[in-house]
Amino acid sequence: MLSLRGVTKRYGGFTAVAGLDLDIPAGTLFGFLGPNGAGKTTTMKMVVGLIRPSAGSVHVGGQDVAQHPLAARRIIGYVPDRPHVYERLSALEYMYFIGSLYSLPRAEVLPRSEQLLTLFGLGHKRDHLVESFSHGMKQRLVMASVLLHRPRLLVVDEPMVGLDPQGARLLKDVLRAEVAQGLTVMLSTHTLEVADEVCDEVAVIHKGRLVARGAPAALKAQAGVAGDTLERVFLTLTAEGAATDGAGPVALGGGPT
Ligand code: ATP
Questions:
Q1: Beta carbon of 40 within 6 Å of any ligand 1 atom
Q2: Which of 81, 136, 169, 212 maximizes the CB count within 10 A of its CB?
Q3: Which residue range(s) make up the domain with 104?
Q4: 69-73, Cβ contacts within 8 angstroms, sequence gap of 24 or more
Q5: How far does the centroid of ligand 1 lie from the alpha carbon of residue 91, in Å?
Q6: Which among 150, 170, 187 is the end of a domain?
Q7: Is 244's pLDDT higher than 70?
Q8: Atom 18 in ligand 1: which residue has the minimum CA distance?
Q9: HSE of 229 in the Cβ direction (CA atoms, 13 Å)?
């Protein structure tokens, strides 16, 4: 579903993402992990076509994102780390606004919006202005709106920040249910328990390079000590001085390389 080949992003003399190769099969919930500044957001912006790679290519559903940006965006849903919502719209108006961006028929938008708002616990708030929403409610609204056009690839940057335990549980359940229906999700998170619990596979990026990928259980097994946590694996792989140059990623069972 998603394929990155040699994807590189340079800002002047600084390389934020260095020659990333990654394949994410359809129907996978894929966790994208890495410390602050590792290159996660930069990579995700290249995946959704918001910034162009300095080198390399991104294909989504077989489409080259740089060459066919509109076709690619039709099948992508993107939730940035700081999503923008128009405060002076009601929740339902916001859904209509997003539906119009994707040229969805109005007759289709209303029932789907009601269904999604209810799914995210906002059914009773559909006519309330977004400005009256809490941070977590705004996040739920953004998640509801991003599913409106039935994307095949969902790219979600740090969705758990600011969600209460119910909101986090809900989001995890919705993502798993959508993935069971065939959605592919690329999710960046610093919450390693989330990655451990819901992701089929994870990749760890450090200083712009892929340092490991595999099923969470396989990564933990690699650490070699019973009871090891993904956190310990993560800290080991991303410690200052950990090898990031030329060694190639640690690839473990559970996914294609
Ligand atoms: P975090 O977990 O803190 O969100 P991240 O893994 O998402 O981090 P990125 O935002 O992708 O990291 O940033 C990767 C590196 O690229 C950082 O060193 C950042 O300072 C740099 N960077 C990002 N955007 C720009 C830009 N527009 N100009 C210059 N440098 C940038």
A1: yes
A2: 212
A3: 83-150
A4: 73/48, 73/49
A5: 31
A6: 150
A7: no
A8: 37
A9: 8
Distance 89 CA to ligand 1 centre (A): 31
Contact 123, 60 (CB under 8 A): no
Residues 70, 169 within the same domain: yes
Residue 75 — very low, low, confident or very high, per pLDDT cuts 50/70/90?
Answer: very high
Residue 257, pLDDT > 50, answer no
Q: How many CB atoms lie within 10 A of CB 118?
A: 13
Q: Which of 96, 124, 150 is the last residue of a domain?
A: 150
Ligand 1 lined by 34 (C-beta under 6 Å): yes
| CA 47-229-250 angle, 5° bins | 50
Co-location of 236 and 145 in the same domain: no
pLDDT value of position 164: 86
Asked if residue 58 and residue 164 are part of one domain, the reply reads yes
pLDDT at residue number 235: 82
pTM of the predicted model over 0.85: yes
Q: Is the dihedral of CA 164, 170, 175, 176 positive or negative?
A: positive
Do 217 and 92 have their domain in common? no
